[in-house]
Protein: histidine kinase
Organism: Ruegeria marina
Amino acid sequence: MLNSLSGRFLILTVVFVMLAEVLIFVPSIARFRQDFLQNRLERSQIASLALLADDMLATELEAELLANAGVYNIVLRRDEMRQLMLSSPIPEPIGHTYDLRDAGPWPLMRDALKRFFIARNEVIRVIGEPVKGAGSLIEVTMDSAPLRMAMIDYGIRILILSLVISVITAFFLFLAVRATLVRPIKGVVDYMQRYASAPEDVRGIINPNAGVTELREAEEALKMLQTQLTQALRQRERLAQLGGAVAKVSHDLRNILTSAQLFTDRIEKSEDPLVRRMAPKLVNSITRAVSLCESTLAFGRAEEPAPMLTMLRVRSVVEDVAASERLAQVGVGVEILNKVPNDLTARADPEQLFRVVMNLVRNARQALEATGKPGVVTVTGRETDHDWLIEVSDTGPGLLPKARENLFTPFQGGVRKGGSGLGLAISAELVRGHGGELLLKDSSSSGTTFEIRLPKGERTF
């Protein structure tokens, strides 16, 4: 109970109310002391009026008047004359004198606190102004014990009243906190627990309805998080299912391509010059297809083969890509230019670099074919002190904004209509395996340029 939010609010409310009462208590007790002393002065003035009415009062009557006023002596100044009106023996010398005329708040509070904490009784003198203009000054002597007892009694009553006020206030605040904060927070926690038990069930997604602004913002943020997570889980499930299907297809396709390799020897023996010239390219294509199937099977096991890094001529890899893509062209003519310098060598995996460049060139070629107009795909290469750079650019229409937002995300970053976006996602992963980076360097109405960055240096930790 006390560790709950509402329980702590209850305790804090009681503490703060009592603290406020303490701050109020000091001026209150000072005011009570002033009223108490002023009352004694007024009673003493009334007692002195009896003496003014009759100069000869019996000793017993004087003692009764003094006892009724609660004082030992009464001095009244009238007509510039100081007169001892009533008197009785003082048991001890006067300990303190208090002048209530024009007393400021700070002296009153200081004197009240001193008197409140002085336990012993002493005789005090109190000076004030008579009421109704009955003189210029009235002075009495009295014991301090009745004053202190009255102040203690008043303080106890103030304390009890403060406790009652704090308990009542805390109770209503407790109810208000439970209704406005605790209950909505528990509702959020219940939604979180329900969602955690079945994240795929959309019924567990919270429906924001809190009236408090901060809680409403928290509920909306939770709803957004739950919605995104549910979509991600569904996407992950679909990817897992697709991965299983691709692995099965790749397995069967690998067997088919392996069988196709057996027929290439006979094709190479053909007397047709064109067939003899195209046979090596066919062999290389089938070899790469088999390698791709094997890599796909490894990807289905949630692992991409580590690149086998070696120094290679970049122009040769690009030429193989260009030759394959020229054969795959349909419709309008798309020119593929290999402008990589002959002497440019880079450290990379030949097959993986071929896949990356082929994906980029193929995307560019298909984008140009979709426009129905001729175009040019250009591959260039250069090196800096730290990297080898390969750029693939085209003269196509550029990428759509949606494609740019999720460019390297599977099934979301397709650069052409009907594309899955897997090519760029796989290419980016392969380049990262080299320690490099695949970037969209530029995309506008005049064309698109991708850049492959392969680092020269070794990885440092």
User: Anything to note?
Assistant: Residues 5-169 form one domain. The chain has a mean pLDDT of 79. DSSP finds eleven helices and twelve strands in the chain. The first strand starts at residue 73 and ends at 78.
